Each structure stands twice: as C-alpha cells, then as structure tokens.
Give the backbone structure.
Amino acid sequence: MRFETRAIHAGLEIGNPSKAIIPPISPSTIYEIDADGRNDSDFHYTRLGNPNRLQFEKVAAFLEGGEAAAAFSSGIAAGMAILQSLNPGDHILIPEDVYSGNRRMVQKIMTNWNLESSFINMTETGSIESSIKPNTRLLWIETPSNPLMRITDIAESAALAKSRGLITVVDNTWPTPVNQRPLELGADIVLHSTSKYFGGHSDILGGIVVSAKHDDFFEKIRVIQRFGGAVPSPQDCWMLSRSTRTLAYRMRGHNENADAAARFLEGHHRVTEVYYPGLESFYGHDIAKKQMTGFGGMISFLIDGNREDAIKMVAKSKLIKRATSLGGVESTWEHRRSSEGEGSVTPETLIRLSVGLEHPLDIIDDLAISLGD
Ligand SMILES: *Cc1c(COP(=O)(O)O)cnc(C)c1O
C-alpha cells in the first residue's frame, strides 16, 4: 500500500477488539496479570507500552520505511534518547546551525555526561569527513537546517558515515516523510518532533525515533524510552494517530502555499534574501531537488533595515500570528533571534515564517500589509 493509504489504515487493529473504525483511547495505566502470575500480552504497565502508543509507532515506522519506532513525550526527549544510547567519551558531529533546542540539550546536558561534540558546517561532505575523529560514533544531520535552510546531501553523507562506521541520524521534523525519506537515502535513524507537522494543529507535544533496522542500537533507545520514562500519554498518541491520517494532504497544502509565499517575498523590494529550498535561486536547490519531493512549509527571509525594523514588521500582520514553533494549520512567524536567545548567531533581520493552510492569497495579502512602509 502507498503512503496516503497506510497513513489512514495502518495499525488500526491494535487494541481494538470491537473493530471500531477509529480505535478507542486506552487510558488505563495497568493491565490484568494472568492467573499464573505471568503477563504474556504486549501490555503490562502503560509506561512500558500501551495500544495507542504502539499504534502510533507502527504508523510512523511505516511512513518512514523503518523496522521499529519509539515515541517520546517531546522531540527533545527523542533526540536525547538517541544520544544517551551512546557511551560516555563518544564524539558526535552535529550542524553548527542545528535547531537551537538540540544545541542546548547537547551543550547543557549531554556534555556533562562526557559526550564530545563538534558543531560543523554540513553543506560540504568534505567538511564532515575532515571532522571525523577516532571516537566519532554518530553523524547528526538536519536538512533543511533551522533557520538558515542549509542543505546537507543525505545520501552522500550517510554513505561516508557508513564507510567510517558511524550511525547517521536525520532530524526530519521540517520535511516530514511526505517530502523527504532519509532511511531510503541510507540514514540509519530518523527523528521527529511530532509537535510540528505530525501533530499539525499546534496542540500536541511529542517526538518519535524511527530506526531502519530493529538492531541493538535501537534496543538501547527502547530501554531509555521505557526505563527513562519520557513517554507520551495514550491521549496524545491517539491525537497524533488522528492527525497523521491527513499528514500527506496537509503537507501538499503547506508545500503549495509556501512556494507561493516564497515567490512573493523574492519579488518584494524590502526583502533582501529568501531561504526556501524550492526557489531555483536558492543555493541548495539542486541537492534539495534530488532528495526532497516537496520543499515544505518553512521560509526564512531577511529584510532591509535592522533589528527594530524586523520586529516592527512581524508586529504589523493581521492574519499571521506571532508565535514560535511551526507546522500548524495557521500561519505563524517570529523574529527568530529573539526566540533563540543567548548564543544565537541568527541574523537580526531574519524573520521565520511557518506557512499555514489558509488561502494562499490571504497569506500573501497579509505579507504585503506587513512589508508595506
Ligand atoms: C521543535 C523541534 C525539535 C524539538 O522538539 P520539541 O517537541 O519541541 O521538543 C527538534 N528538532 C526540530 C527541527 C524542531 O523544529
């Protein structure tokens, strides 16, 4: 079955004895133990597993083309579980402009546990190669990156990583498996903040790890999920499964609307630079075209002027809401540097826009109002 069909039908039989078309939420934290004291079913205590979580994991694994998946209570918890599966003293390569929350997680938490890291430019495979050290174990890719939309060639980097014995992890939150399928390009693990497009309505916090192989490294991640305990609730998993059924169609709308908005911005006299992988003028367009089937709903752009001008512009919109995060049906934007806070190297005139599913002409009208003098 194909992507759209699987998104709607996969895993519906799990925890669904009455064959309801929509499986029920299973709020119970505990499951009955057999009379002989054993419990051979999948479910025992909800932190260890429950039908709603298993169902969402199954759907996510299908959509990314992996053998196994583990759901977490946030994208950051999912990312941290991957890094906690390494050993103290191991070294990782991670993009210099990685999502700022992941940067903080590495620097403020994992470094204390003796994880070594190099934050590097990943637009050239050569710079990845020259940064590999004897104790390097993992290559962490985020493409397009956040907020500068830098593009890393996944197939080339994953092949290099494999030849040097490294695990390749791709944070696929922005593209989603609708637009980019890293496991098919040779990556070992895909990670998502499901708070974004998977949830899609700005009302769920979550994360998921999908592994190409059900191997020993994935089992370590599973142990951290179950015994570390950063798990999503059955209610959240049920909501996520519900949202995932429309993921493919929502992403098509995000792709289409963002393309229209990016082209409008590119032609506007107050905009000096548009970072959107779908634009032919974008430096990473050729690699993006090779590995993405759609270019996503996120746009960053620079305006002429200074920090105050950018903040003023974001304040002028009537439709686009000022908020961080991304991936909702409503368009949102922010002066990104203010959100990233301490240590941010994002340009002061950069505005980051999450293009929603409103009518594209209404989004463009609102951009025109906000950019107007
Ligand atoms: C939001 C985000 C995360 C972190 O996810 P949370 O659900 O907020 O913990 C990780 N990576 C990327 C690319 C993100 O946008």
